[in-house]
From TrEMBL:
InterPro entries: DUF58 (IPR002881). The chain crosses the membrane at residues 30-52. This is Lipoprotein. The keyword 4Fe-4S does not apply. Keywords: Lipoprotein, Membrane, Transmembrane, Transmembrane helix. PANTHER family: BLL2464 PROTEIN (PTHR33608), SLR2013 PROTEIN (PTHR33608:SF3). Pfam families: DUF58 (PF01882). Residues 197-369 form the DUF58 domain. It comes from the Bacteria.
Length: 436
């Protein structure tokens, strides 16, 4: 029953003083109200005759808005008067066009379209969890209710990474064209692999002259070069406990995903092959050939559901996977945290074996809290202790960086919002100096 039945009974109770027998009058009123409630319930549209479907977008980038429409078909012979509550997980940011407090009407055989606008606040999969339909009678005294958790039409919206780092791609592509020698900058990109011989023209670098070929041909010939292509790049994302630390407004894992997406897009334009692996104690995701045209969506879909695991990353497992899967020499980019405990005990013991076959680059996002503590003069004694702890952390990171450098590992240590462009710059530097 609804509040209307109670209000009707209360209104009738006001007339009890005029009855010769108030108790009999109360019984009569209760019977009348119950009769009206039963009649109203019988006239309400049966929920068993309703069919529910969904349609709309399956994926949206973080920060965007998707629309998913719920279609409610009234297959019964009675008009439908109902309140519909379509519930999603809170992080889906669902905003229904029709509020759940409003009564919707559908004639027999009519189909209602109830759209919901979703603006998610977190990356990953955001499912619809429950659908509740409350069908009222024409008097509004009673209702039939369907709490449709088992019967809720399944729908999951995949929230892709924001990928704000894509704004850095045009500038890095311009630098790549300079390296390729297809665009004139301050210096013409000479390339790093021998391409062909041609006749010397005024302005050529004399260091490019091939004297032996010139002696055989009786003319001055110079070597031409082309940039490295068809190199292999393996991007490894650490999804262990250190990836759950918030650096700024987002977890470290999100900054690593941004950097991996930008690096994959840039390396694909450079003609290199890119594989992506995410792991902690087990492999979480693996994408091969992420550089191919049209593969950005596949890579983003594979990385979107990744969440930090509160376990210590097994770098022996990662090294074993890399050595087993990738035998040709490759550039291994490890996106992790520069923590002496995690890397000193996990990565350094297996690093010599890994660095003997592959070129290794470690990229980490700095914690802005540490930078702020070391940049601001302390005003209170407790601030001085906090600043001292931050300086000690930086000293440990510097010692770890020096230990990695001794194994010929390139280290990129940058703030979270600058990690993606800094990693792209390091890749271009290695490519221009033929160190891939």
């Amino acid at each position: 029953m609804t509040w209307r039945a109670a209000a009707l009974l209360a209104a009738g109770a006001l007339t009890l003083p005029g009855w010769p027998a108030p108790f009999v009058g109360l019984v009569v009123m209760v019977c009348v109200v119950l009769l009206l409630v039963g009649l109203d319930l019988a006239l309400a549209a049966p929920l068993g005759a309703l069919t529910v479907e969904r349609a709309g977008e399956r994926a949206v980038r973080l920060g965007g808005t998707a629309t998913v429409t719920l279609y409610l078909r009234n297959a019964s012979g009675r008009p439908l008067r109902a309140r519909v509550r379509d519930a999603w997980v809170p992080s889906a940011g669902a905003r229904p066009e029709v509020p759940p407090t409003r009564v919707v009407h559908a004639a027999p055989g009519e189909v209602l379209a109830l759209p919901s606008h979703l603006t998610p606040t977190r990356r990953g999969d955001r499912p619809a969890v429950a659908l509740t339909i409350r069908s009222f009678g024409p008097l509004g005294l009673a209702f039939r209710q369907w709490d449709g958790r088992p019967g809720t039409p399944p729908w999951t919206l995949r929230v892709l990474p924001r990928f704000e780092a894509r704004r850095h791609l045009p500038e890095r592509l311009s630098r790549l064209r300079v390296i390729d020698g297809t665009q004139v900058g301050r210096g013409r990109g000479p390339g790093t692999e021998f391409d062909a011989l041609r006749e010397y023209v005024s302005g050529d670098d004399v260091r490019s002259i091939d004297w032996r070929a010139s002696a055989r041909r009786a003319e001055v010939l110079v070597r031409t070069w082309r940039p490295e292509r068809d190199r292999r790049l393996i991007c490894v994302l650490d999804t262990g406990r250190t990836s759950a630390v918030r650096v700024g407004d987002e977890p470290r894992l999100d900054a690593s995903i941004e950097a991996a997406l930008l690096l994959s897009a840039l390396a694909g334009r450079a003609g290199d092959r890119v594989d992506v692996l995410a792991a902690d104690v087990v492999p979480r995701a693996s994408v091969a050939g992420a550089e191919r045209p049209g593969q950005w969506s596949r890579l983003a879909h594979a990385l979107a559901p990744l969440q930090p695991a509160l376990v210590e990353t097994d770098f022996r497992l990662i090294a074993g996977e890399l050595l087993r899967r990738h035998r040709p020499r490759s550039l291994v980019v490890l996106l992790t945290a520069l923590e002496p405990g995690a890397l000193g005990e996990g990565l350094l013991p297996v690093l010599p074996r890994l660095a003997a076959r592959h070129r290794v680059l470690v990229a980490a996002a700095q914690d802005p809290v540490l930078v702020r503590l070391t940049a601001t003069p302390p005003r209170r004694p407790e601030d001085a202790y906090a600043a001292a702890a931050a300086w000690r952390t930086f000293d440990e990171r510097n010692r770890l960086t020096a230990a990695l450098t001794r194994h010929h590992v390139t280290v990129v240590d940058a703030p979270a919002d600058h990690l993606a462009p800094a990693l792209a710059d390091a890749y271009l530097t290695l490519k221009s100096t033929a160190q891939l």
